[in-house]
Design brief:
The chain has one domain (about 5-195): Arp2/3 complex 21 kDa subunit ARPC3 (Orthogonal Bundle). It is about 65% helix and about 5% strand. The protein has helices at about 20-40, 55-65, 70-85, 110, 115-125, 135-160, 165-185, 190-195; strands spanning about 5, 10, 45, 55. α2 crosses α6 and α3 runs antiparallel to α5.
């Protein structure tokens, strides 16, 4: 059975029916929401685009890889729901709409892609991609591609109306930084699994 590390604890899938395991899964989702929301606060607006520079994508990918496909995706759905009801979980911005309106604003495509990106990264991690550095980086790169694709399609349809303009203002300026962050972040999970032991 597969085990996951959540805040220093192991979750065994065989105990999914137990009250303790259920509570731990809820706590894991809450942890994913909190990590994503915290990362969103480290943001920097850019003068040439409505898309801010933020650490959120890396948190999404790390949460997906650590929690697995289902819990990772659920944590990001919960994150979006928290923003939908008005909690201050999205990146602070003077130009982007607040609260629920953020989910139909210029960056909505990036946000709505978070659950899918977490699922994809988690699905690959469940198949052992997070046990080695290069495959861990590849899993996160796959998730990042999902985020960029969702964001670019939405931004093109609602703001720029030109894919080339979208790529020039909302994808390419961020790609190098996000790939660099993946290079660093991808080293974390293999080290964790080495410490806690292999998952069966």
């Amino acid at each position: 059975m597969t085990s996951r590390v959540i805040s220093g604890s192991l979750i065994n899938r065989a105990t999914v029916a137990s009250p303790f395991a259920s509570s731990l899964r809820v706590a894991s989702i809450a942890f994913g929401v909190a990590l994503t929301a915290a990362a969103a606060q480290f943001t920097m607006p850019l003068p040439f685009t409505a898309v801010p520079f933020a650490l959120t994508p890396m948190a999404v990918l790390l949460v997906g890889a650590a929690l697995g496909s289902r819990l990772g995706a659920l944590s990001q759905v919960a994150y979006l729901m928290a923003g939908l009801i008005g909690l201050q979980v999205f990146a602070p911005s003077a130009v982007l709409p607040p609260g629920a309106a953020r989910l139909v604003g210029p960056t909505a495509g990036f946000l709505l892609a978070y659950p899918v990106a977490a699922f994809v990264t988690g699905w690959l991690s469940e198949r052992g991609w997070d046990r080695h550095y290069l495959t861990s980086a590849a899993a996160m790169l796959a998730g990042l591609t999902v985020i960029y694709t969702g964001g670019a399609l939405w931004y093109t349809a609602t703001v720029s109306h030109s894919l080339s303009t979208t790529l020039a203002t909302s994808v390419l300026p961020f790609a190098g930084f996000d790939v660099a962050k993946i290079v660093i972040t991808a080293a974390i999970l293999p080290q964790i699994w080495r410490v806690v032991g292999p998952r069966s």
